[in-house]
Structures are given as structure tokens and as C-alpha cells.
# Entry
Amino acid sequence: MQSFIQTIPGSTGSVNMVKVEGGVFDMGGESWTEYSMPVHRVALSDYLMAAHPVTQELWEAVMGKEKNESLFRGKRRPVETVSWEQINNDFLPVFNELTVRSRPYGTMYQLPTEAQWEYAARGGQRSAGYIYSGGHKLDDAGWYDENSHRETKPVGLKLPNELGLYDMSGNVWEWCSDRYGSFYYEICKEKGVVKDPDGTLGGDTRVLRGGCWLTSHQRCCVANRDGYHPVSRYCDTGFRLVLVYLPVWEVNPVAIFSPRPAP
# Structure
């Protein structure tokens, strides 16, 4: 799969999907909480990730204007006040159906796994080892409590990271597909190199990454992680898309239109 622009039939909305070449990386590290430790090795397959968080323009194109309950309005601002369940159960099935004829066959849009999110935020194989996604200075790379004026900002105004991804540090927290496990990293460390992990099997919360417009700079670093209940809807929380190849046995009409099943 190569990078491409995903258009939406009947809409002016589009999504810039950036290729992320897979590889092995050290996941985790020093952050706001101890739950980002220990550092452990993860191997990932190729995937595509959206260059920006899902905007209100895209959300409205898929779900309708009446379903946009964002506090800070603007078509280029990230959609927020959306729950994990709304995304997984409502948005993704519709988006996958709308794009089924304009994306590579056998692929599906999903929320990123926590590992996919962190690897991309770090710059993938092009990583320069930055603290934040896009640089060592958060004022250059993201919106947080000291420069956001207590609101979200239109996407793409700060520096991108090494892969050309914007707003992965700050602006809005981003939902991931995984369940949140406080000690999940310890389990991964014991296994050695973990291939394409999709999170712990237990737990009632889902992973959030990236920090947001009202958090401190520590919480915006690429290793930091948190979790909310999947029905939570807050004005600091949005999401971005990944496009992945389905396993051969899942390539069928039902799988193409359906979101990734919860682990």
C-alpha cells in the first residue's frame, strides 16, 4: 500500500493516508505515569495512518451535522466529544462502507492499536528520537495547556513529525483500539519481541494517546498513555484512522463493512 488521498463519495471531505513502513522498535519509556514502563520490543507490519485527526468536516460528511457535538466548532478542528463506542460501532462501519470501492481491496479502516499509534508518533523507521511527535520543543509540534488558549485548534498548524503526521502530540487525545492495561507492558516485556500486539484481553477502559489542549507537556510525550471508559465523551478527546490489510480469511463483504472486533 502506498500513501494516497481517500475521498468520500458525495462530499468534499478527504483523508490524507500516509504509509508507515513496519519495523521493530522500543515501545514505552519515561512519561507522566509509571504505566509506560518497562520498555519492550515490538514488531509491526506495514499500515497507513491519517496525517491528521478526524476533522469535524469529515465527521459530518460521514455521520451528518446533527451528530457533531463538538464543543469547539470549526470544520478543520478535530472532532471531539466522541466516545470509543460511537467511533467503533457507528462511524467506522459507515466510513468503511462509503469507501469500499475507493480503497485497496482487502483493507479496512480502524482505530490504531496502541503500538501502531506510538510507532507512527515516533516517526517509524525515520525516527529522530524526539520527545514529542515532531520535535523536542512542544511549542513547535503541538497544542497543550501553555499555548492552546484553552481550546482545540485547526489541524495541521504545527510541525509534522518525520512521517508527515500532524497533531499527534497535543490538540486532542486520540482513542486507540486496545483495552488499557496498567501492567500490560510487563507482560509484553516477558514475551520478548511482540508481533502486532492489540492489547490486553481484560479491562473496562480503552487506550488514549497523545495528550491534548489542556494537558501539561509531560502528558504529550510519545510514550505517555492513559485510558477512558469507552462510553466517555469529553471535549479533549478525538481520534485518527489507520488502514490495514485484513487476514485472508477475513476478506469478505461482512468484514469489509465492519469495524475491528473488540479484543
In short: The chain has one domain: 4-257.
